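Lay summary. Proteins are chains of building blocks that fold into shapes, and those shapes determine what they do. In this project we predict the shape from the chain. Here is one chain we studied, written as its sequence of building blocks.
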Amino acid sequence: MLFVRAVSTISRIAGFLAIALLVAAVLVVCEMVFVRYVLRWSTVWQTEFTIYALVAATFIGSPYVLLQRGHVNVDLIPTAAGPTGRKAMEAMAGLLSILFVGLMTYAGWIAMYEAFEGGWRTETVWAPPLWIVLAPLPIGMGLLVLQYVADLVRLFILGDALTLAEQDTSFAELTEARAIQTGEQA
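And here is the predicted shape, written in a compact code that computers can read:
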């Protein structure tokens, strides 16, 4: 399960990066308020940076949210469907999500590449290169695809998604623990 462990680590790193972007946005807003209302200086880049940092945090943090199972989820039907129905629904949802998020990743890479090749910049006073602004979309969505694939690998190899406590446990330990729970021999 090296792939699953590696993707989980990458998703955790992405989560920490998203937190750092949120902290940076908060600090820049504080700096903007001080500069604007105390020093009476104009603000050029602060609002734009804050918007870009919050959007980047949203995209880059999405694989971590999936890893933690933090997305909004209605589980009435899957719970009523039983283990087999739940597994089938989770597999279908994962496959459809990979398709959608994969298309978002592809479209994001195309937009970012065009902005890079064209030397495009935002149409503001600050005018940062547009490819930097667009990069969090394909990066975050690409990592989200990897996390969905890792979740499907867990689902099909272990038969169910891992709980948070199980995520740092080895495959052999999980197989043995689940065998003990079900009364089977490992």
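What the prediction tells us: Residues 56 and 153 are 27 Å apart (CA to CA).
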